[in-house]
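Reagents: none. Just compute today. ATPase family protein associated with various cellular activities (AAA).
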Amino acid sequence: MASTPYTTGYEHWRDELLLLDALIQFRLDCRIELERDNPFDPMRGLLVTEEEVARLLNETAGDEALSDSLGVRQRIIQERRSEIDARLAANLAEHRPLPLLELAGRFGLLAFERQCVMLALAPELNRKYEKLFGYLQDDVTCKHPTADLALKLFGGNEAGQYAERGTFEEDGPLMKWIMEEGERAAGVLSKPLRLDSRIVSYLLGTSEFDHRLTPHAKPLPTPRQSEWPLLEVEELQERLLHFVRMNEARRPAGPMLIHLWGGDGAGKTTHAALVAASLGKPAYKLRLQPESKWTAETNQLLHRFFREARLAGAVVALEPAEPGGEEDAGCEKLLAWTSVYPSPVFWLTLSPRGPGALPAEEGTPVLQAELAVPDIMLRQRLWMNAGELNEREAEALAAKYRFTPGLIRRAAEHAAQKARLDGVEAAAGHYEQGARAQAHHRMGDKARRLNPRYQWSDLVLPEEQLDMLRQASAMMRYRGEVFGKWGFERKLSYGKGVSMLFAGPPGTGKTMAAEVMASELNMEAYKIDLSQIVSKYIGETEKNLRVIFDEAQRSHAILFFDEADAIFGKRSEVKDAHDKYANVETAYLLQQMEEYDGISILATNFQQNIDDAFMRRLSLVIKFPFPDAEHRARLWSSMVPSATPLSKDVDFELLGRKIEVAGGSIKNIVVTAAFMAASAGNPLGMRELVAAARQELRKTGKILLPGEWEGFF
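Predicted 3D structure written out:
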């Protein structure tokens, strides 16, 4: 007659505990009959007598002949064990899961190891076993079973017990994954068998995830198409699934690694979750520190994480920290976990990694794929799908922000939340705010964010220079139409940004022009002092520049590199290592500017120091001339706000003709004069302007002749 499978874990536990009770009673009866043990001895477990020493020296570990009554009992116990095993086999045959069978399957536990798990679980089900274990082990303080007790209960005769001792080795599945971590006993037989709290909760079904892993690890929800724009991901999913199924079919099956790299929100985690869902498995994700910063707590975290993943048969996604140097790029320590994990492991990084920076042993199947930023047309579609935007508004955001799908979704969610707080429907301005919230930059002390306040009307330059600046703005404003609709993005692999050189004396408006363009395009702008970026240490300059361009790429921020003379000079013959690496730095910056999709500006006071070959590779070279009298008069006038009380004697044309200074100095003079007038309680007049001009000119060793400013001295 076929055995009936168990329907619940409780039904199984009940039979196992009844069998354990019978085993304990049998063990007790054996001790009384064969060892002449007195269960009522008040000194039991506290004192070793001479008689007990003699008995211990003469015992033969279970090979004694049993009386008829004990022999009958032993046969009954064996029959009960066979009945339970038959029902468990029926569960396996009919694919009816039970906690203990699932645990054994995940970790490859054999029959004896399953019995040890049941023995260790007993005190968690009924506290009477704490007293029973204390009695059986001659130690009332020992409330948990030991390896010795497990061998005596389940190991059979002396030969059987000896054969099972290897079960309790530290690297075996029982002790490594199932039993509690902590101080281990010196001998094998003395090892306590305490289940880890997570194993207890798993067997009893009281918890679905180890809470100790929070916040480092988490289960990944299955992505729903309504929540994620699954545009153009089917091809990659097919590749990933084909790779996984091909390697799962290997005999014997082994570890495999999938390396996905791409920017924040590119879809790396989503692809891992989709693969897991297609395989009918959960997915767990863990964020890691660089290996150079690992501690004992890190190893414990990895142990718990990979145990949790094995319990669920999960697909694993590991997200390492970006390496801060060569010492952070290795994965040697992680190999101990990934090289033996039986399900797919995803390695999710922001940038590509070489073979030595992957947690895969030689010979392990590896698939690598990049999740690139979508092109401008796809970004426009993503913006339109994510929010209430018309085609023109979506095109503008797509052209301005080089966002991944995830960042677009987050920006749209931010916009919707802001609109709800404002009590209105989400508009283009809300989506702009949402996009800026995602485009945060981590440039540290390498750049200073500009706060654009100037408009085109504030910029006083010859018409030719103004036209070139407007042309540069138009190249950014209409990039969506030219690169997207007109198809130029498919023709250009790089050089889709605008690189410019601003050359001219100090104070002629170079920084102001960058701010005007930022204000016109509603873009962020950052000022970088190249003299602070250049380092005497080989490779540091390139590293600093890479951080700046990588951070700015997300939102096409305007990068304004001041003091370009610090890195660009006339090329000369390479005479030593310093000359060689100076040219490497120059070439690297040029390459980054050509590959940058936004606006990058170099500012110099001395155009003659910039190599001609370099200037030929720039989009625009704009010369900022020293202003003539007419332009100086306009500068004087434009610097005075309309709300400023102005004396009738102010003559901007006279100031423009007589005081030959650039716009930066004019600004200083006007601001100083305004404070002079305010402190005297007067409107701003020529006396204050001339006095402030005298102070400004003294900085450069120039003077104003009193005869030319009669009445104002």
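DSSP finds 29 helices and twelve strands in the chain.
Action item: order primers for follow-up constructs.
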